[in-house]
Please model this.
Amino acid sequence: FGPAFGGPRTRRPRAHARSLAVLSRATAPRPPRATAMGEEEESSWDQTLEQWMLSEDYCYAAGLAQKADGALYAAAPEKEEMGWGFLYKEDYEEQITTDSGDSNPTMINEAACLKMASELVDLGKKPKEWKGLWFGGNKYVMTSMQKIALNTDSSKEVQVILASNSCKKTGVVITMTESQILVGAFDEQKGQKAGNAVKASIAFADYLVEVGY
Model:
């Protein structure tokens, strides 16, 4: 898993990208209400992600999407929208090499790629439309897929995909609950390991399932 990104891209998503996020948020699950200093306040999913996925430094970024469309509706770190900078890039063109060895310019929609990845049942059986797995303009190669039991109820399992970008020494853990896709990104150059990123992801997935997602 590879060299860290050259640094967070703090530029906010463009207008239409933000509108897509708003559409996803409209039907996204609402975070539970938390009590602070005696007053009940509603936290955002961005904040919830930061607390569960980043607080122990197991991941440097995290995101949530719905399985229905694969579009991220929440990302962390919240500060200056760094999570969006790490995990999201507006549609762009990349050279994709086909099975025949030809290289063709292909439009990448990262949400569509994530949705397709979440629907796989076997890493060796990808659909013809497969364009790879992309986050923030960087391609990740899926290396493993397995079902892992939840901590609080071992009879329930979630599907977990591990993917890496060997050039950047970064990786992502993709965890699917019944309706949600959780993305946790880790960076080996920051001392973050795949095992700990999986640990954080399973703990949060456990929480999501417990509250009905």
